[in-house]
Structure prediction request, 383 residues.
Amino acid sequence: MAAKTADIAQRTDASGELAYPFVRAPYSETVHGFMLKVERQDDASAPTGQACVGPAWVKPRVRIALLSNPRSTGNLAQLPKIREYCADHPDVFHYEVEDASQIGEAIRSIARVRPKVLAINGGDGTVQAALTELYNGNHFGDAPPPVAVLPSGKTNLIALDLGARGDPVETLERLIELARSDDLAPYTVARELIALRHGEDDKPVIGMFLGGAGLADTMLYCRDKIYPLGLPNSVAHALTAIAAAAKQILRLKASFLPPDSKPVSVSFSEQVEPITGRFSVLAVTTLEKLLLSTDFGAHRQGTLKLLTIEAQPETVIGAVFAKIVGKFGREEVRGVRFEEANEITIHGDNSNVILDGETFRAVSGSPINLRPAQPLSFVKLAA
Prediction:
């Protein structure tokens, strides 16, 4: 899960999810069939797909298109069950990708079968890559299907925000049940997205959660130093939290702890004073709950939400205490700032940011620009 950045912003998958091709023999031929069984009908305007194993004469309407990343953490154990489930449900079109470069072709194939729901079976990095292709590729025209997310990665921030928890197969069953209904509207919700631009690339990268400053350094520390230990996710995240606390609160210095946060400056399109300093947390999102399951009572629709916590022990302790007593986000805490803006620019000197698992680096003279992207409809499974 190593993330490597160059002198300029460089794209990597946060979990290494899409970084390696998968090889499965003798099952690989079946997987190949999953990917290529898109049958052309006499009516070229209404193609159908039969992605799962089933009788050749059965051509049901595709209700769910499932895009899977076999390298996602949960899929290492769950994907055989998902394949078996798809084999018994021919109204599911299942497409597996070998690496990130195949997501464009996957979305093009999925668009041909015109599903009622596009389900993404992977971690946050897989979701981000698929959202970016949906946004930039325009494969569905003006009417993309609602997106659902199965919790199959290590962090699953997006899946959790949409109410997807537990067994991915159970989530898929629930999605099929919803897709069979005549009206999906009661189960969908519009989500604003983040469009990240950096350098000369005109096409933005699309996501929903960005971490920067000390938060990004801690996430990279977890990825590079803790995950390789092979511990359960809960244990890995607990160890990372302890290491971050030792660094931020106790001010310990050691090679096995996260690095010192670098100074960054955040500017806004509105007449808002820029924020400059070293931060233990810098987060930008469009999710309902910004960080630590905290609702900051945002009132402006379609804006980006920013949270910064200064890298000072008293500020970190104050924020943690406010969270414990239920006042975080409701009462002012010294060194904690929350802003809403239509445009946010992050300036730094070799400062990392992570957008839904993909790492970028802000360097001198080449800042990272964030703007809201066109909302997309998501299937929300929570009540």
